[in-house]
Design brief:
Elements (H helix, E strand, L loop, with lengths): L1 E3 L40 H12 L8 E2 L1 H22 L4 H14 L1 H7 L5 H8 L4 H8 L8 E7 L7 E7 L8 H4 L3 H21 L4 H18 L14 E4 H7 L5 H7 L7 E4 L2 H13 L2 H15 L6 H16 L7 H12 L1 H12 L2 H24 L5 H13 L1 E5 L17 H19 L18 E4 L4 E5 L14 H18 L21 H19 L15 H25 L10 H12 L3 E2 L1 H10 L5 H9 L3 H7 L20
Parallel strand pairs: 4-6, 7-9
Antiparallel strand pairs: 1-8, 2-10, 3-4, 5-6, 8-9
Helix pairs in contact: 1-23, 2-3, 2-15, 3-15, 5-13, 8-9, 8-14, 9-13, 15-16, 17-18, 17-20, 17-22, 20-22, 20-23
């Protein structure tokens, strides 16, 4: 799955200089006061486009970052809060009653504290009752517990019309393996703080030998981290696609007792499992065998408590925030409980809340305009693919077929989740969390082994994000993102093409042709449809872009991982190239635009592109992003991209000697 922080800002074809109403931001769609004209565009385009904002805009104390992508969710939260409180006060349906009850149980911290650890006891008793390795593995695969691997359900990469059972390495307590393995004082401090957090949880819950437990859990997770693949290796869809029958599975990792485990999960009919990193799964099996049952039970106990800390007494919740928030992400303050309650509802009753949200905040005209945007960008991509010089005719034919098969879903699902079987308590937040986890798995289970339902969504309408799914060749654009500051029908066309065309639709459609997505054919099958000659030319371009990003060092000693971020960087570059071409097509139809506030149409296009990535991040959060996230930091999604694009040089007269200047032969061109 691919995703990005989606940015939209207006209709591509409708806005003209005589606007029906003023755009929300500035006189024509940009905040000129955010710019820093003292910076030469060629020396730092991100700083030039929003340097004043970067200097003057603080990151809120309860946030990891600030900027357009992080401010709109605040508005969404307020909108959802009002709807949830209305549903609680005046429920109009059983589902509305569940929304109100779940929120009420979550918000009553005093009642949670008064009940103490009693709600936790039955879940820890399940762990204590485990007496055999088979029982251990079965509990690990319960959706409310954790283990060294996961087992789930996804579209079959060989036949995306059918679901398959998949397995791979599971997340650990720290965000990514580098936190366990990298040397240096910073990582030593984080590991020490994590160990202290494990000790504190043990003491708060009254577990025996909290210090010894912490040492054993740290040793176990460190070994598991060594067994796991790096995030960049996990991006290889061929290496992580290994369909195995029951005999193969038993040979690979007999310690997982596949027959009994799959049966306990309701997957007894599954004849095969698609194993992600097989070596990591095999190694995890050896840890099941080599590590004592008692240590594994200690590990499950800690992870269950930690993963459900927000539904437990305040001291446990605060300990969780002190490590994951303050220490790891360097966030000074915990978010208000009501905000976290809105987030909780998004994960447990998300589509039920989404139905309320769509009813209040999704006009039909927005749906129409969004579809128009998709059509315009599809035409621009078709033109680019048809005329690119490095793609031969056989590959071009399939590339165009994939574009034609591209399936955009805009706004909200056409079919909603039925929550009638989800039991919600009005008083027990922990029980609600577990019930939601179990319900989520049952929804998955009901889909297997039926044909894939392409109408299903994995994001809620109130989510400020978007994604591309290669096995389905689909883009999903939730309703929440299609509003100001990201969707404004009154903005200047140059702004609309940059923010909507480049950073959103062009980007997401570009994922179908990035280093990972390009390996899936028009029907979403994992299949090599590129001729060797064209693939070789593409790989040269991709490797050069990865090498460029490897050089960037946002934190001293911590570079961007060019291979990890390659897919997003390719989508950014391809999206910019294609959206600019679409904008020039618009200009050819309507005439060269007038200069506004001293900026030409092309200059406005590129400034809008840069401001679309407005953002700044705390050091701890930025470190996590660099080590584990496939998205480059915002500054490099601007400076690292535009310096490869010839029209940007022309628009701002960027020349040799400017800091961002790249000689023409060093620029990476995907669709230019």
């Amino acid at each position: 799955m691919h995703f990005r922080y989606l940015l939209l800002a207006g209709t591509l074809a409708g806005a003209v200089p005589a606007l029906a109403a003023a755009p929300r931001y500035g006189g024509w769609g940009l905040e000129l006061q955010d710019m820093d004209p003292s910076v030469r565009p060629g020396d730092g385009f991100f700083q030039y486009a929003e340097g004043t904002w970067l200097k003057n805009h603080p990151i809120p104390a309860d946030k990891t970052a600030a900027g357009y992508n992080y401010d709109l969710p605040d508005e969404i939260e307020l909108q959802v809060k009002k709807m949830v409180e209305d549903a609680a006060a005046h429920p109009t349906s059983p589902t509305a009653q569940k929304i109100g009850d779940a929120y009420a149980a979550w918000m009553d911290q005093r009642a949670i504290d008064a009940r103490g650890l009693a709600p936790l006891k039955p879940y820890l008793d399940r762990i204590d009752a485990v007496s055999t390795p088979t029982e251990l593995v079965e509990l690990m695969m319960d959706p409310s517990y954790v283990g060294p691997i996961y087992i789930g359900i996804a579209a079959d990469q060989d036949d995306p019309t059918q679901y398959e059972v998949v397995s791979g390495q599971a997340p650990l307590g720290l965000p990514v393996r580098d936190y366990y393995l990298l040397q240096g004082a910073k990582y030593d401090t984080i590991r020490k703080a994590y160990r202290n957090y494990i000790v504190e949880i043990g003491k708060l819950v009254g577990l025996s030998d909290p210090e010894g437990r912490a040492d054993r859990i740290m040793a176990l997770e460190t070994q598991l981290s060594k067994d796991q693949w790096e995030p960049e290796r996990l991006r290889d869809p061929v290496a992580t696609h290994n369909v195995m029958n029951r005999a193969n599975l038993q040979q690979l990792a007999p310690q997982f007792h596949w027959d009994a485990t799959l049966a306990s999960m309701g997957l007894g009919a599954a004849k095969t499992v698609d194993v992600g990193p097989p070596s990591a799964v095999a190694a995890a099996g050896k840890r099941i065998q080599d590590v004592s049952l008692s240590t594994w039970k200690e590990y499950l106990t800690f992870r269950f408590i930690s993963n459900h800390a927000s539904a437990l007494p305040h001291a446990i919740d605060q300990a969780n925030f002190n490590f994951y928030g303050k220490t790891l992400s360097t966030v000074p303050e915990q978010r208000a409980r009501w905000k976290r309650g809105v987030e909780m509802l998004d994960g447990s009753l998300g589509e039920a809340v989404g139905q309320l949200y769509v009813a209040d905040h999704w006009p039909a005209e927005t749906q129409r305009q969004a579809q128009e945007l998709v059509d315009d960008m599809r035409a621009a991509y078709a033109d680019k693919i048809s005329n690119t010089s490095w793609m031969d005719e056989a590959t071009r034919k399939t590339a165009l077929a994939k574009l034609a098969a591209f399936d955009p879903r805009i706004g909200h699902p056409v079919k909603w989740i039925d929550y009638s079987k989800l039991e919600i308590s009005g008083t027990d937040a922990l029980a609600n969390a577990v019930a939601s986890e179990q319900f989520g798995w049952q929804i998955q289970l009901e889909r297997f082994p039926k044909p894939v339902d392409r109408t299903l969504w994995s994001m809620t309408p109130q989510t400020v994000n978007a994604e591309y799914t290669p096995t389905l060749n689909q883009i999903t654009v939730p309703a929440a993102i299609l509003q100001p500051p990201f969707f404004d029908a009154n903005a200047d066309p140059a702004v609309n093409y940059a923010e909507t065309g480049a950073t959103t639709l062009g980007h997401e459609m570009g994922h179908g042709y990035d280093d990972e997505g390009r390996q899936f054919d028009p029907q979403g099958r994992l299949r090599d449809w590129w001729t060797p000659a064209t693939a070789a030319k593409y790989k040269v371009k991709a490797d050069r872009l990865a090498a460029q990003f490897d050089q960037y060092e946002p934190i001293p000693g911590v570079h961007i991982k060019g291979k990890l971020t390659l897919g997003e960087n390719l989508a950014d570059l391809g999206g910019l190239e294609t959206a600019y071409a679409a904008y020039r097509r618009y200009v050819s139809r309507h005439g060269e635009p007038a200069v506004i506030d001293g900026f030409t149409g092309d200059q406005r296009f590129f400034i809008a592109y840069a401001q679309a990535w407005q953002g700044k991040r705390r050091e701890g959060s930025l470190r996590q992003q660099l080590l584990s996230n496939p998205h480059s930091p915002e500054q490099y999604r601007v400076d690292g991209i535009v310096r490869n694009f010839d029209p940007w040089y022309a628009a701002f007269n960027v020349k040799a000697g400017d800091k961002l200047y790249l000689p023409p032969e060093q620029r990476v061109r995907i669709w230019q």
